[in-house]
Design brief:
It is a single chain. The protein has 138 residues and is an all-alpha fold. It is 67% helix and 0% strand. The longest helix is centred in the N-terminal third of the chain and has 23 residues.
Length: 138
């Protein structure tokens, strides 16, 4: 609750990000020091990749950096990670970051078809999510 109150009391966006990082670190460190170490390493790696992407002037170079980073996460963690940055058109967004209802529906359908179904099939013979009507999904 304290972090929530302090977050909204801060007028600076950058300070808010640092507060959330510190609060996350403290929260996980109170449970297990290894979790705090994972957050520290992950945050440092994410920051480094983001800085490299920001410094790249070529769009192809940025995409290559992102692709390499996602591939490394997939390999290291043993879970599939995908780049869905180009799945939605500009008109699908309300403000450039938040999807409108139609855009969210198209994104969800594609996500189920291209990612969840493939992942679920690799685990078992689970029913394909994209083939079930939306009102029957849980």
């Amino acid at each position: 609750m304290l972090a929530f109150a302090v977050y909204w009391a801060m007028p600076w966006q950058r300070a808010r990000v640092h507060l959330l990082l510190a609060a996350s670190f403290f929260f996980y460190a109170s449970w297990n020091h290894w979790l705090a170490a994972i957050i520290a390493v992950s945050s440092t790696l994410d920051y480094g990749v983001a800085r490299a992407m920001n410094g790249a002037t070529d769009t192809r170079r940025r995409k290559l950096l992102l692709s390499d980073y996602l591939a490394a996460i997939t390999q290291d963690c043993g879970v599939p990670v995908l780049d869905a940055t180009e799945w939605s058109a500009k008109q699908d967004f309300w403000d450039g970051h938040h999807l409108l209802a139609d855009g969210a529906t198209r994104f969800t359908q594609r996500f189920c078809h291209e990612f969840l179904d493939t992942f679920a099939a690799s685990l078992s013979n689970a029913p394909r999510l994209s083939q079930r009507p939306m009102d029957q999904r849980q």
